[in-house]
Amino acid sequence: MKLLAMAANKKTVLSASKPTTPIATKQPQFRFLHGDARDDDYRWLHDKDNVETITYLQAENSYAEAMTADLKPFETSLFEEMKARIKEDDSSVPYKLDGYYYYSRFEASREYPLLCRKPIDANGGWADSPEQVLLDINVLAKGKTFMEVGEFEVSPDGHMLAFSTDATGFRQYKLQIKDLRSGKLLPFKRDRVTSAAWALDSRTLFYSTEDKQTKRSNQLWRHTLGESVDKLVHEEKDERFGLDVYLTRSNGYLIEQIGSLTSSEIRYLKADEPNGRWRVLARRRAQIEYNVDHRADAFYLRINDTGRNFRLVTAPITNPGRENWLEVLPAREDVMLEGIDLFQHFMVQYERVNGLNQLVITDLRTQATHGMAFSEPVYSLGVEANAEWDTEVYRYSYESMTTPSTVYDYHMATRTQTLLKRRPVLGDFDPVNYMTERIWATARDGVPVPISLVYRKGKVCNGSSPLWLDAYGAYGIPNDVYFSSSRLSLLDRGVTFAVAHIRGGGDLGKTWHDAGRMQHKINSFTDFIACAEHLITKGYTSSDRLVIEGGSAGGLLMGAVSNMRPDLFKIVVSQVPFVDVLSTMLDASLPLTVGEYEEWGNPNKKTEYHWMRAYSPYDNLSAQSYPTMLVKTSLNDSQVMFWEPAKYVAKLRTLKTDQNPLLLMTNMGAGHGGASGRFDRLKEIAFDYAFVLRELGLN
Predict the structure, then answer these.
(1) How confident is the model over 485-494, as a mean pLDDT?
(2) Is residue 158 assigned to a domain?
(3) Other Cβ atoms closer than 10 A to 90
(4) CATH code, domain with 35
(5) Are 599 and 585 in contact (CB under 8 A)?
(6) Does residue 473 register a pLDDT over 70?
(7) Secondary structure of residue 244 in the 3-state scheme
(8) In a domain, 248, yes or no
(9) For residue 445, what are the contacts with CB-CB under 8 A and spacing of at least 6?
(10) Is the pLDDT of residue 643 over 70?
(11) Which of 13, 274, 315, 687 is the Cys-Cys partner for 7 at CB 3.0 to 4.6 Å?
(12) How many Å apart are CA 548 and CA 555, to the nearest integer?
């Protein structure tokens, strides 16, 4: 196989006065199913071990580098601008657990944090206590292009640390145990670990592992310190279901959470009886999801058996069958119960109302309940480390598109709160210079769709402003707003940033997800188009000033709307995009495929095949003019295989009728989330911004 007219040699590309566009050779293949024929001329790019595949990716990288060579000074300037806003030697707010304060901290100029602890002194303080560095991730990352810590579980006696690391970006984690007294690693090493939890004896560690081929988390194991052979506790045979394990905050039970995208089953074990028998709490039922927490003599189940937005029930531990459940909170159509946190005397409910997070606190001794109010029109709440069981203090974080992430301790009994830390933004940042708001677009079927916006004050809505529109819209995951100090480099140059909270996500509850998945997936795309049109109609931007961005399933969105309405957008930024939907969903050997039949459909079924056939971006590319496109992927991506965007770009190059730039960039040493180091990640953002701002004439 040969690559024709491809700039495979980096030196040649960079020295050419006009870079040669990479053109991948076609190897015609036709795939027939359900009476439908699809051409797949670039299927050979699936082979990661084929030298021609790597050559093509490198040629595209060289082409992108040559096409943006003039941007390097601007890109560097943006990087330094964004880096200058970061406090490089910053640290997290410490939290208490079993006689220690735990925290992370960065040292200046280093890519990764140090994970540390200090013993609590006799007065309850910690500042003068000696520091113990549990993990220095910079040391773990030495000589590697990628490093991420997954599990971080300290044994109840504080002596052992079970931690996992991924050194490639493939989200394949190796579990190890460190003796925190000696600082030495135990001989124990296990591959492909997805979760871990200690029993109360601090000698027994439960962990889950994934299937080598599909990456489905399917086995639960028990390891006893000092023993070389582990016991397989449970293997999940249903390919739609995965599992993980955790210890309740009460330290009462170990929980094995088993679930598909639409159904759940939980098994539990007393945490002080690690060799005991695991019991099933409630057997799985189609379309019924639940999770569990524990307090005193009851389990608390959040379950959607009587309404899509979940209710809360208690089940007595002695006999937790459905006939003994007591309803604490009913299912509500207008309120999504997203979760709960239990403490010895309090319960915190995480609710979503009209697309916004809410917190509701209940004193379980008196049943007195109160909610917490937040004043900004658009914001997000986050759960911080709340490791202690017997406490009256709940720690949470708050941020908006104008307020940096802020950590609070909320005193649940007195209903007062203490601001512990607001993430510093160095330089001349002042939130009063920016405005955030929420507006609503009308979808094609009349459904209101929220849009969150932030911009620098003084903006005039006459259609002249550039606007960057972000969206996701899948898996029921809310696309919550957040503060970004890097984004200030856009806002200060007159760019408005917006988030479209389209159906398919969980922004307005479970029914919002239902309305944008399976046979209803088209709603995600038409919602986004409606949001873009609304922003143009209201004068926030115009089609020749509109930038759109999405990643992963949001990259599917980018591909679909670019096919449907290429005239509506100036620039498309597509991050690790899921664009070859049918090829992926027809390959059951790939990670995630079978489990995601419940999100996209099963294309082996004719009706469901045609749902996907109607929008799959790769299969619906056509000879038309497309916007400027920046498509980014990673060679070690285990969620969306690199060949999806590679095939998409290769095919698009042969069809598009415009002269707009089309760039494919592959990170050859990372995975789905891109670079792992904090400065390396900033460099990726700086490149994206430099490219987009140049195309908008703002560099």
Answers:
(1) 98
(2) no
(3) 15
(4) 3.40.50.1820
(5) no
(6) yes
(7) strand
(8) no
(9) 523
(10) yes
(11) 13
(12) 10
Strand boundaries in 345-461, DSSP class E? 346-353, 356-363, 368-372, 380-383, 393-399, 406-411, 416-422, 434-442, 448-456
| Cβ(414)–Cβ(501) below 8 Å | no
Residue 124 has pLDDT above 90, yes or no: no
Active site residues: 552, 637, 672
The pairing of beta strand 242-247 with beta strand 231-235: unpaired
Query: To the nearest whole percent, how much of the chain has pLDDT over 90?
Result: 95
φ/ψ bin of 425: left (φ > 0), alpha (ψ from -120 to 50), beta (otherwise):
beta
Q: What are the pLDDT digits (tens) for 510-523?
A: 999 999 999 999 99
Q: What is the DSSP letter of 620?
A: G
| Backbone φ and ψ of 204, nearest 5° | -110, 125
pLDDT at 18 over 90: no
- The distance between the two most distant Cα atoms of the chain, rounded to a whole number of Å, is 78
Domain count, the chain: 1
- Indicate the SS3 state at residue 75: helix
Contacts of 448 by beta carbon, 8 Å cutoff, 6+ apart: 440, 441, 442
Residue 689 falls within a domain, yes or no?
yes
Domain of residue 455 covers 10-83+428-695
Do the domain assignments include residue 413? no
Helix, strand and coil percent figures for the chain, each rounded to 5:
20, 35, 45
pLDDT at position 16: 40
d(CA 461, CA 480): 25
Q: Is the dihedral of CA 653, 658, 661, 662 positive or negative?
A: negative
Q: CB-based contacts of 645: which residues, under 8 Å, 6+ apart?
A: 555, 574, 576, 577, 579, 631, 632, 633, 664
**Whether pTM exceeds 0.90:** yes
For 249-304, how does the pLDDT look when each residue is reduced to its tens digit (9 = 90+)?
999 999 999 999 999 999 999 999 999 999 999 999 999 999 999 999 999 999 99
* Mean pLDDT in residue range 174-184: 98
